[in-house]
Design brief:
By secondary structure, this protein is of the alpha+beta class. The protein has a domain of 50 residues. It is built from two helices and four strands; from the N terminus they run αβββαβ. The strands form two sheets. The protein has a two-stranded antiparallel sheet. Strands 3-4 form a two-stranded parallel ribbon. β1 and β2 form a beta hairpin. The chain starts with 6 loop residues before the first helix and ends in an 11-residue tail after the last strand.
Length: 85
């Protein structure tokens, strides 16, 4: 896991990783192209413990996989009870 102070930092880093992976490489005489899907979950906005953060990032990644070949997405925690704000 990486630590960011702003959500946009996570998105910028994800986009940079995707950009780096988007360039085909030559491997043993074969041109190889890669795709990636990145799920983003942020503490404390999305979860309060590491396991829950990973679960939310995993869910976000599978959302990306269902909609695009190469992308990133964030997952926001869905409240289980109304907040008293």
């Amino acid at each position: 896991m990486l630590a960011f102070t702003e959500p946009v930092e996570a998105q910028i880093t994800a986009q940079a990783l995707l950009s780096s992976l988007s360039h085909p490489i030559l491997a043993e005489g074969h041109l190889v192209s890669l795709t990636a899907s990145i799920g983003i979950s942020l503490y404390p906005e999305d979860a309060s413990d590491p396991q829950e953060l990973i679960q939310h990032a995993d869910a976000a990644m599978y959302t990306v996989k269902a909609t695009a070949r190469t992308a990133s997405a964030g997952m926001r925690k869905i409240p289980t009870r109304p907040s008293n704000a």
